[in-house]
Write a structure and sequence with these properties.
5 helices; mainly alpha; flat
Amino acid sequence: MKPIRINSLRIMAAIAISAALITGVTSTAWANPASPEEMKQNWAKHRQEWIKARLAKMADRLEIKSSQQAAWQAYVKVVEAPVDIPAKKPDAPADAATIVRARADFAAARAKKMAQVADATTKLQEVLTPEQRKTFDQMVQHALHRGQHRMMHRDHHSEEGRGWQHNDR
């Protein structure tokens, strides 16, 4: 019986330590909530890390050669660059024209970024071998399909079936 007693004491001690650690971490998180700006910075950092990892996988899969590095690095630079988003959203009691103008400015910034990516993609494709180009085309097509699936999934669950519209309530 003595081994059982020791094991049960070890288990109880492990549970007590785990509970103390969980409680301490949780109370610290609740005591120091991240500000909206910190959350924005954390998200931007997470997104940059994700993009870097995705690009590294692409380079491995494409087997980029030294002669292709200049075009690849130019592509990476454009893809990693953040979108130059206009100032900020209009304040809460804004009129319709102000809201629509802000959305148009944001869309224009995204379109400018996509045009830059398209130009870098064209230059990269020019230096890829036919096999690499086929692989690259498949990767981009898969990413596009994945993005469309996310949009459709989000639209399917949107309030009142309003599709792409954002609910500011």
